[in-house]
Please model this.
Amino acid sequence: MSQHNIRLEVMRSLEPKIDEFIETFLIPIDEIWQPTDFLPDSQSEEFFKEVAEIQEGAKEMGYDLWVTLVADTITEEALPTYESWLLDIDGIDQHEKGNGWAKWIRNWTAEENRHGDVLSKYLYLSGRVNMKEVERSTQHLIADGFDIGTDRDPYKNFVYTSFQELATNISHKRVGQFAKKTGNLLLGKMCNIIAGDEMRHHLAYREFVKHIIDQDPSQMVLAFADMMKKKIVMPAHFLRESGEAISSAFDTFSNCAQRLGVYTSKDYIDILEKLNTYWNMEHLRALSDEAEKAREYLVKLPDRLTRISERMHYPQDQYHFKWVTANGVL
Model:
């Protein structure tokens, strides 16, 4: 049987567990938080007062924090791109009646959709960003599409989502912590609860990979190693501002996040180490010769990346995005 067909068989074997995965890792729609739980009620007489409180709370946030928040928001708003990509993975068929994996993707993206919604409305109400430029960047990110190096391979895609969901958990959690330090308690709460969603999603995709390792360990390890050799590229890697065909927006945004300590090279390494541990890369046996070499590569990779990161330097100069001015005030 070809490797492609083996992957399809593994995906089919996990389908009966989808309802269990949804019950364990997602929250029913009528029970989970919604953006309106955090935002002013436009039907309330207190609406303008509450908007004024949001704008007051936003005044003390620095430039790097605004850039990081805007980039996180744009990334969350590009959800249609991620859903259409995942629905095209081998073993996931949105047209097949009752396809469990398609049900998972729809329910997962429905939860994710709320993140960009609440953050975008917050940015709009804050009065501290150029929303038209933010909206243009969001439209560019969706229109441009992206290639994260996974092809239609479910194994590679689940490695990617396991990694990326934990990375977004860290980023949102840290932005929330910095917001609280400036006295912006509302944004702190929003980012913290978004981070909680991302952690649940990370745990789900991490579990998918663990189940696949039980059934097809050699190919799963090879997929993991392949993704790490390519490097896990965040969706924000494809950000660009209006008027630019090719943008360095991601690099400059990354510098902001690195300077702040929102998401750093150390976090990247820590995520890899956590995945290595949970997927038992240190002690996994009964692999093909090729997979054994890949396993050894993965086990040694954190130390190698640590040595590289110690030599890296990040520029302190602040690039001025069109999204927000240098002092965070338009």
Summary: Residues 28 and 55 are 32 Å apart (CA to CA). The chain has a mean pLDDT of 90.
